[in-house]
Structure formats: C-alpha cells, structure tokens
Amino acid sequence: MTGHRRITASDVMNTQFVEMDGLQTAMDAITTMRSRNVDVIMVQRRDEHDAHGILLLADIAKKVLARDRAPERVNIYEIMSKPVVSVPPGMDVRYCARLFDRFGLSVVPVIDDDKVIGIVRYHELVLDGLFKLYEA
User: In this structure, which CATH number among 3.10.580.10, 3.40.630.30, 2.60.120.400, 3.60.15.10 belongs to the domain 9-134?
Assistant: First the structure.
C-alpha cells in the first residue's frame, strides 16, 4: 500500500441505508428493502443504553425462508444480529478489511457519537477504498 494516502471508513461508507424498529416484521423489512433498493437494515436502539442491531438479507433467508416461517409473523428483533461490530469514521480501510476477515463480516455500520452515519461492505472497501489508494 502507498503509505502516504490514508483512506478511511467515512471516505468510502455508503450513506444509503435504512433504519427500522425491531418490532416491525420481516415482511416490513423485505418490503422496505425492495422499495429502497438496499440489502442492509440498521435496527434502531430502544434507548440510550441499548445496542444497535443489523438485519441482512442473509438473516431473512436463513431464519425465515429456510425455516418456512411466515415473514409477517416474525419480528425483526427475532432474526437480527445484536450487538453489531462497528467501525469509527476515521478507521483506515485496510483495518476495516482485516476486521472483516478476522471476524467473518460482510458489512459493518460506521458509528459516530452513538449514531449510525453509514455502512461499509466489501463493495466500498475494494471498489472505493482500494481503488482510491492506487489511483493516480
């Protein structure tokens, strides 16, 4: 890597994400994902002492579809991951990639001052982060 250029999570994060309440249903999540063209739902905290949650398409496929559950009868909180592994906005994308590898992650929220400000996936790390490191 170049040593002179530093690309951070906030430089590459995607700000197109959706936040939903954990009491909403998997069907609500599916409908929202389709209409907003997103594949990640950030689950809102219930209060200041609660942790952020995350819902991926894979969660719905594994925990609703594969188990033949009715999506309108499953709440998001039943199938989400919580607490989430997150990164700060200033984290170098190389460390983000190492975090993904080490913990088997595919997406993380970027959290600043207890607020989700974006998400980072492999797409952003490679097509934005790595590209920016080597572009002229």
Answer: 3.10.580.10
> Residue 12: CB partners within 8 Å, gap ≥ 6?
93, 120, 124, 125, 128, 129, 132
Predicted local distance difference test score (pLDDT) of residue 4: 59
Q: Which residues contact 26 (CB under 8 A, 6 or more apart)?
A: 60, 64, 69, 71, 72, 74, 75, 76, 79
Regarding pTM above 0.85, the answer is: yes
Q: Say which residues have a Cβ less than 8 Å from residue 56's Cβ, sequence separation at least 6.
A: 39, 40, 41, 81, 106, 107
| Token reading at 76 | 């998001």
Strands 53-56 and 40-43: antiparallel
Helix (H) or strand (E) holding 74: none
Q: Judging by DSSP bridges, how do beta strands 18-20 and 40-43 pair with one another?
A: parallel
Q: What's the pLDDT at 38? A: 92
| C-alpha–C-alpha distance, residues 108 and 110, integer Å | 7
